Amino acid sequence: MLNSKYNIQEIIAGCLRSQSVYQRALVDDYSGLLYVICNRYLGDVHAAQDALQESWSLIFRNLATFDISKGEFEPWASTVTIRHCLNILAKKRVKVVELKTTTVNGKEQDLQMQIISSMSADHLLELVARLPENLRTVFNMIVIDGYSHKEVASALDITVINSRARLNRARSILKDRINALTKKESWINAI
User: Fold this and answer.
1) Which of 111, 120, 108, 128 is nearest to 175 (CA)?
2) Could you read off the pLDDT of 89-134 as tens digits, one per residue?
3) Matching CATH topology for 8-92 and 112-190?
4) Separation of alpha carbons 93 and 157, rounded Å
5) 178 touches 118 (CB < 8 A)
6) Which residues make beta-bridge pairs with 104?
7) Residue 55: CA atoms inside 13 Å, Cβ hemisphere, count?
8) Which residues of 49-80 are buried (b: 16+ CB within 10 A; e: fewer)?
9) Cα-flanking dihedrals φ and ψ of residue 37, to 5°?
10) Which residues contact 59 (CB under 8 A, 6 or more apart)?
11) Which one-letter DSSP state was computed for residue 71?
12) CATH class of the structural domain 112-190
């Protein structure tokens, strides 16, 4: 991810010494990635920009706790950003609606590969961004960021069953939207 002329160890050491050239290098190198995370979770450009600035504040404030020997900077910064976005969503949450689990033939539908293979990433992210906030958050955490249902349930203060239900509902909505687009394209091509 680094685009600067410094390696990550140099950048972090310089940031810990409050040297602005290294702080700028870190921000320049990772802001794109962290902005995408904020936008994916919050679904609003302005909220994502605000969350990105707040995430950088948290990252710099906690940089001394980062240990490069225990892992890479990118996943650590991504986790800080995701947790911040989840906190923002938790503060906005007024009411949690329980959804019933929907299954097909007794199994959860696995649409992840079907969705990803049938459309561009930008188009998929646009469809995901239009999901209701509670469904979008679970979908992002599980499908895109790789969290388990147990981790999602803990982070969002919901049950594992509710996490599964929200994922199923998000997938169902995405499937319906993709099917609608497919039918629309077939109709247009027939003309």
Assistant:
1) 111
2) 877 764 333 333 334 444 334 443 444 454 566 677 788 888 999 9
3) no
4) 11
5) yes
6) 107
7) 31
8) eebbebbbeebeeebeebeeeeeebeebbbeb
9) -60, -50
10) 77, 80, 81
11) S
12) mainly alpha
185, amino acid identity? E
Q: What pLDDT, in 10s, does the model give residues 8-54? A: 889 999 999 999 999 999 999 999 999 999 999 888 899 999 999 99
Q: In the chain, what are the domain boundaries?
A: 8-92, 112-190
β-bridge partners, 107: 104
> Which ranges constitute the DSSP H helices of 63-147?
73-92, 112-118, 121-129, 133-139
How many Å apart are CA 59 and CA 74, to the nearest integer? 11
Residue type, 160: V
Return the CATH fold of 8-92: Rna Polymerase Sigma Factor; Chain: A (1.10.1740)
The letter for the amino acid at 30 is: Y
Q: Which amino acid is at 101?
A: T
CA distance 162 to 75: 27
